[in-house]
Amino acid sequence: MTAGLSFYLKFISKGVIKISEKLWGGRFEKSTDEMINDFQASIEFDKRLYREDIKGSIAHSKMLAKCGIISNDDAEKIIGGLKKIKEQIKAGEFEFKSELEDIHMNIEKALTDEIGDAGGRLHTARSRNDQVALDMHLYVRRQVSEIQDLILSLQKELVTAAEKNISVIMPGYTHLQRAQPILFSHHLLAYFEMLQRDSDRFCGVYDRADIMPLGAGALAGTTLPIDRKFVADELDFDAIYLNSLDAVSDRDYILEFLSAASILMVHLSRFSEEIILWCSREFNFIELDDAHCTGSSMMPQKKNPDVPELIRGKTGRVIGHLMAMLTTVKALPLAYNKDLQEDKEGLFDAIDTVKFSLAVFAQIVAGMKVKAENMRRAVEEDFSNATDLADYLVKKGVPFRQAHEISGKLVHYCIEKNCYLKDLTLDEFKNFCDKFDEDIFEAIKPETCVNNRNSLGGTSIEQVKMQIQSAKEWITQVE
Ligand code: ARG
Residue 75: pLDDT above 70? Predict the structure, then answer.
């Protein structure tokens, strides 16, 4: 059989799933078509929610017993059974079945098989709609904390690299043209700040995920005397959804997660782009560790920055997941619709991508070799001190517009003469303006240019040291 044919045959229905195997089979006469079953089953990807599903079910069964809806004896059996199932899943000994559709029904069925009738009481006063919402809230909360830890590790590497290279001078760019000399450490710390905002944004995501949906039932609440506050306390939630329709159909926290993840990836992607440029022969500002690069199967000389390239590439994927989720939700009527099952694959992939990218990025930063002399040469061999030349004249009383004009003419003169500002004689300077003095040579040295930019947040060594200081304070505060 050709590969093409077998591909299409996969989509031809092969049989049916017996209705007796379904937990919702009562209303049905006919069995489920096997292809339809495979199409709508989510177990392949939502099995990663098993910890949250079990944790939520344990809290729910405790609440049911406390409210007298089930007996303490049944609750104990349920909790024991759930714990056993958790161990089986952890050990890889649990058989996930696609005919049981999702993680919720896989676990519930296994529980009933394990403990008998008591298992059938677990789903009292609950729907899969509020159950899946609870699982996802718990999962997002856990992942946000793990991502924030990874952000912090990368931030620490940035601070270490900034301290190690505190006085290395490089050209700062606008329009990718050399603009003004800056400290390399200042450049690295700009990414610290971006990551700081990312971490902050994830705090917001955490807050919006920290709301307890269980008890909303399928959409309208329940006729049974439940205690939602008890479940919220058991699971350490800060708040409880006050509208059951909202509780089961809210995916804002996932949209916010994907937004925060996209912005974070955009930051990593911009940094990747710079690393890729800096590794090129044309810039030659840094070299990545051999352990973090790959070679070419054809060109023996190549050492390729695949890792930052891949991070740049994967950024599109995460942004895509955000777009997909916005599009999924945008025309959904209240309350639950199966479309919402589509919240998972994109979110899970975004989580994996973000975590992996942060972890490898920290390694890239820790392993990179900084070629300070090449950066220095790039600063020497350009006109990035032209603003300082103008500022020099301003300090001698020349209006800035005029000073700008004089500096521009001097740059033009140098280009004609094929030299740099530092190569001119004092007489040549004086031909353009009589305010120039011997101290002009000191004023246009890269170190002076950098250290004179001592305005708050500027690139002077004093300001950069202050940035490092406040970064370190923040790190010790959150650790
Ligand atoms: N697997 C489903 C999801 O992820 C669980 C909720 C299903 N609810 C339902 N009424 N079919 O959204």
Answer: yes
123 Cβ inside 6 Å of ligand 1: no
Question: Which amino acid makes up residue 215?
Answer: G
Distance 315 CA to ligand 1 centre (A): 29
Residue whose CA is at the smallest distance from ligand 1 atom 12 = 341
pTM recorded for the entire structure: 0.93
Contact between 384 and 300 under an 8 Å Cβ cutoff? The reply is no
* Ligand 1, pocket-test mutation among 341, 342, 347, 348, most atoms within 8 A of CB: 341
Q: What pLDDT, in 10s, does the model give residues 140-189?
A: 999 999 999 999 999 999 999 999 999 999 999 999 999 999 999 999 99
> Which tens digit of pLDDT belongs to each residue from 418-467?
999 999 999 999 999 999 999 999 999 999 999 999 999 999 999 999 99
CA atoms of 391 and 362, how far apart (whole Å): 39
474 burial (CB, 10 Å; 0-12 / 13-18 / 19+) is middle
Q: Please tell me if the CB atom of residue 132 comes closer than 6 angstroms to any atom of ligand 1.
A: yes
Query: In DSSP terms, which residues pair with 462 in a beta bridge?
Result: none
* Ligand 1 atom at shortest distance from the alpha carbon of 340: 12
Task: Give catalytic residues, as residue numbers.
Answer: 175, 296
Q: Which of 460, 455, 337, 443 is nearest to 396 (CA)?
A: 443
In this structure, are residues 209 and 253 in contact, taking their beta carbons and an 8 Å threshold? yes
Please give the Cα distance from 399 to 393 (Å, whole number).
8
Instruction: Evaluate whether 411 touches 383 at the Cβ level (below 8 Å).
Output: yes
For residue 338, report the distance from its CA to the centre of ligand 1, in Å. 6
Compute the distance between CA of residue 87 and CA of residue 161 in angstroms, rounded to an integer: 43
Q: For the chain, what is the mean pLDDT?
A: 94
H helix or E strand, kind and range, residue 205: helix 184-209
Regarding the beta carbon of 128 and ligand 1, being less than 6 Å apart is answered yes
- Supply the DSSP string of 214-251, one letter for each residue: TT-TTTT--SS---HHHHHHHTT-SEE-S-HHHHHH--
With a 6 Å cutoff on the Cβ, whether 341 touches ligand 1 is yes
For residue 300, name the pLDDT band (cuts at 50, 70, 90).
confident
- pLDDT above 60 for 336: yes
- Ligand 1 contact, 250 CB (< 6 A): no
